[in-house]
Write a structure and sequence with these properties.
The protein has nine helices and eleven strands. Helix 1 crosses helix 2, helix 4 crosses helix 5 and helix 7 packs across helix 9. With about 400 residues, the protein is of the alpha+beta class. The chain folds into three domains: about 110 residues, GMP Synthetase, Chain A, domain 3 (2-Layer Sandwich), CATH 3.30.300; about 90 residues, GMP Synthetase, Chain A, domain 3; about 130 residues, GMP Synthetase, Chain A, domain 3 (2-Layer Sandwich).
């Protein structure tokens, strides 16, 4: 058990996660499933798919320009089934939902700015204006903040027990929250855990509490588990009504869950349902990649990278790195200046024109192995062909 010096400053930081069955995540997963279906047939498809789910309805809206022949409704229905909403007694069930499709082609003005060919391909303009952030910290092997990492693990382990049938009363919708005490040396111990999970009818609260306490916490928290954690399980009581049958879900409403749990900043643009020409997604992924490289190179213990774009313009307006006093800011800035933040260069370097996005939707877009922006190896950086509009600041 960790001990604390009463004269030493400490604080508690909390982050939450949600399961794949949370209504907003259902919407995100359907959107990313449609994106992947198009990229599998047309790597240069432009997809901006939004989804709304509520009771027996699923609405698809947005803009898609693609050579692929994708039955979006069938893809959506299959995604809902995969998540686990198959109970015919529920309003939101894969075989019962009514699907409405409101999809059009991408606006011509945007298409003209992002469709560059031949020698001009690297000058592909950003698909929108905006700012993106990436963050990395050495407090975990995944270079992620501990609270969000543990919150994701709790939600993911619950989902695994549900899918494999080992806990028959678990249902798809759930939320987790983890609080961690920090001091100047980093995370010290988990103080509080909150688990709210949808369950089958008639399951008593003590049974759910016991399983979370005796099975879920030790398995999910690993070495961070200890007997003094304050635990809250379904604190509002019964949770038999959940998922889209009870609450509306919309794409892009879990952007803090998707990123760093509030520990790192977020530019405001959602990820799911967007192809990599949309810098909301690819720019954020590359900022994470570069922030990881700063930490892996030993230039800082924590790093946050920000990039800003103008629609239709390839070169970013600005790039900035913050090391929070944990490294030499000038050295880090010079290092970051060596990366090419043009959208086409990002897409090429991370090989983003592939159907890889369904695996990003749930339990965080960062900190999971196998994703190209999560590589632990430093690779040769692209050479910037033109100077960034403003100098990189540390």
């Amino acid at each position: 058990m960790a001990t604390f010096d009463s004269d030493r400053f400490s604080w508690i930081f909390s982050s939450e996660s949600v399961s794949e069955g949370h209504p907003d995540k259902v919407a995100d997963y359907v959107a990313d499933s449609i994106l992947d279906a198009h990229l599998a047939q047309d790597p240069h498809a432009h997809v901006a798919c939004e989804v709304l789910v509520k009771e027996g309805h699923l609405i698809l809206a947005g803009e898609i320009s693609s050579q692929g022949r994708v039955d979006a409704a069938s893809v959506a229905r299959a995604a809902v089934r995969e998540i686990g909403y198959t109970d015919p007694e529920q309003a939101f069930s894969a075989d019962r939902i009514a699907i409405q499709t409101l999809l059009t082609e991408q606006a011509r003005e945007i298409a003209n700015s992002v469709n560059r060919l031949g020698s001009a391909a690297l000058e592909q303009g950003a698909g929108d204006q905006g700012i993106m952030f990436g963050y990395a910290t050495d407090e975990t092997p995944e270079l992620m903040p501990l609270p969000i990492l543990l919150a994701h693990t709790l939600a993911r382990v619950m989902a695994r027990h549900r899918h494999d049938g080992s806990v028959a009363w678990l249902r798809p919708d759930s939320k987790t929250q983890v609080s961690v005490r920090y001091d100047d040396d980093g995370p010290q111990r988990v103080t509080d855990v909150l688990v709210s999970t949808m369950h089958a009818r008639g399951v008593p609260q003590p049974k759910i509490q016991e399983w979370v306490h005796d099975v879920l916490l030790p398995e999910a928290l690993g070495n961070w588990h200890h007997s003094d954690i304050r635990l809250f399980v379904n604190p509002s009581g019964s949770f038999e009504q959940g998922g889209p049958s009870a609450d509306a879900g919309v794409t892009g409403r879990k952007i803090i869950v998707d990123s760093y749990g509030g520990m790192g900043r977020h530019g405001g643009g959602a990820f799911s349902g967007k192809d990599p020409s949309k810098v909301d997604r690819s720019g954020a992924y590359f900022c994470r990649y570069v922030a990881r490289q700063v930490v892996l190179a030993g230039l800082a213990r924590r790093a946050e990278v920000q990039v800003a774009y103008a629609i239709g313009v390839a070169q970013p307006i600005s790039v900035k790195v913050d090391t929070f006093g944990t490294g030499n800011p000038h050295t880090a800035a010079e290092f970051v200046r060596g990366f090419d933040f043009r959208p086409a260069a990002i897409i090429r370097q991370l090989d983003l024109l592939r159907p890889i996005y369904r695996q990003t939707t749930n339990y965080g877009h960062f900190g999971k192995p196998g994703l190209p922006w999560e590589t632990s190896e430093q690779i040769v950086r692209e050479t910037v062909s033109k100077p960034v509009a403003h100098a990189v600041a540390g």
